[in-house]
Amino acid sequence: MKRLLVLVVSVFACIGALTGFASAQDVTKLSFSIWQQPEHYMVKAIRSWAEDVEKKTDGKVKIEFYYGGTLTSGPQAYDGIVNGISDIAAAASGWNPGQFPMTRIADIPLGWTSSRQASLVTWDFYKKYQPKEWDEVHLLYLFTDAIGYLHTKQPVRTPEDLKGMQIRGTGSDVPLIEALGGTPVGMPFGETYLALQRGIVQGMVSNLASVQAAKIGEVVDYTTDLNIRPANFWVAMNKQKWEGLSPDVQKAIDEASEAAVVRLGEALDNAQAAGRAYVLEQDNEIIEPTPEAKAKFEELLKPIRTQWVDEMKAKGLPGAEVLEFVTAAMKERQ
């Protein structure tokens, strides 16, 4: 009898072990390359999407984050997913010049009012036009970081105040800084604090959330409250890995991604509000340009729109049509 009992227990234990093994085998683990550290405000918002993916797929998909560029740096992220170094990655569209010409509409100064608005409008644009520049990957979603302002060691109240000033800027920020009369200086974001502290540069373009995250308020004294630009970001997946997922899992991930556009926009706007409070806590002055000064700033930025439309036309892409669509969508998404 004892032998029979032992045998029955053993059989059930084996079945349980095999069932557990099968369940473990059914879980798809996806690597996610992210250039920032876990506590960064943007990473926290992206992780909430990953949690939603796991929930909507009933635990069939688990996303494992590799922080701090350990798999790929930001500029390497796109090639990294194309070549299978990571399954998923996030990066700014502006970090790969020429790679995403149409999506660059989201980096053009058009008077964007919030991350939520810009994220929704940019996703509206993608769903309508489906630009071929994303054909190598499965684009999960686009979103836009909090709106960027000018942060400087000396006050900038008019465009004349900016002339000759060395301003840290890379990617899409370079033509904006040049248009406003500043001199762009390229350097990694992580080096900006010391560069400002040592006077190598006199300012930078950034949203307030990043200023707080990097403690930039300690080494600048002024923020010019001018919506200079948004900064578009993407989250995409290796195409072969995506095609290997079952249709029900694909559907669940797409649903989570659609919801993430609004969720990230709102989270980044909240981070922007916290950044504004931080700047004021540092006793920094937030400069509100006069209507006349604001009009001058905006006039200097206008040619960037025309230049983008001309570049798209030269490539045979509908830049003028996209610009019209986006400006109309901005009003609807206020």
Automatic annotation (TrEMBL):
<protein>
    <submittedName>
        <fullName>TRAP transporter substrate-binding protein</fullName>
    </submittedName>
</protein>
<keyword id="KW-0732">Signal</keyword>
<feature type="signal peptide">
    <location>
        <begin position="1"/>
        <end position="24"/>
    </location>
</feature>
<dbReference type="Pfam" id="PF03480">
    <property type="entry name" value="DctP"/>
</dbReference>
<dbReference type="InterPro" id="IPR018389">
    <property type="entry name" value="DctP_fam"/>
</dbReference>
<dbReference type="InterPro" id="IPR038404">
    <property type="entry name" value="TRAP_DctP_sf"/>
</dbReference>
